[in-house]
Specification:
Helix content: 25-40%
Strand order of the largest sheet: 1-2-5
Structural class: alpha/beta
Shape: elongated
Distance between the termini: 29 Å
Strand content: 5-15%
Number of strands: 7
Number of helices: 9
Length: 218
């Protein structure tokens, strides 16, 4: 799944999992950009008992094993360190994982969804992402457009507004809607949702949101 930050990549991953034929199984998310390489390695692959200092006494299943039978979502895969990319490729090719500190490979059965706000093809060309892993993950590409390029912004705003104020019946004026539609929304859906939530929270039930109620950046 490709798209700028805030375009709804994780929401898309959850929707794909629900349609996968295994919705009752786990969807396990790994945020590849949020952890140090050492922690990410143990999070992904798990570790055996006594694998390293401060390890849990009984060892720990990694995210790969936790997702077995279900879906593994690798968020911001473009930020995964190169050495871990090599290990991940081997796991995906062999469908088994060897936890840190263990010599026993454990079979896996995975659906894998990955997402990135980066252009992975450019990172491959720059030597920052493994070409073989890129093609292994690149079976079907879903591109999520930024909010400024979407043609359904008006309906999207109305839908989100209904979801945020189902009990209060807050409306939005035509002039305020024009401001919302003409704004570039650099934070995409994440910024839009936060803005509408704030507008509803500061409005009286049954009132109309006018231009004066909009934040200064609008």
């Amino acid at each position: 799944i490709e798209g700028e930050s805030g375009t709804g990549k994780e929401l898309a991953a959850h929707a794909l999992h629900r349609m996968s034929g295994r919705p009752a199984e786990k969807l396990v998310t790994v945020h590849c950009a949020a952890l140090s390489p050492q922690i990410l390695e143990s999070e992904l692959f798990g570790y055996a008992r006594g694998a390293f200092t401060d390890a849990a006494r009984e060892g720990r299943h990694g995210k790969l094993l936790q997702a077995s039978g279900g879906t593994l979502f690798l968020d911001e895969i473009g930020d995964m360190p190169l050495p871990l990319q090599s290990r991940l490729l081997r796991v995906l090719e062999e469908q088994c994982v060897t936890p840190l500190g263990s010599e026993r490979a454990v079979p896996l059965e995975l659906h894998v969804i990955s997402a990135s706000h980066r252009d992975l093809a450019q990172r491959v060309a720059a030597g920052e992402f493994r070409e073989d892993l890129y093609y292994r993950l690149n079976g079907v590409v879903l591109h999520l457009p930024p909010l400024r390029e979407r043609s359904d912004k008006a309906e999207l705003i109305r839908t989100l507004l209904r979801e945020e104020n189902a009990e209060h019946s807050v409306r939005i004026s035509e002039e305020a809607m024009h401001k919302l539609l003409s704004y570039a929304w650099p934070g995409n859906l994440r910024q839009l949702v936060a803005s509408l939530r704030t507008l509803v929270a500061l409005s009286e039930p049954g009132s109309e949101i006018g231009v004066d109620a909009l934040p200064a950046y609008l």
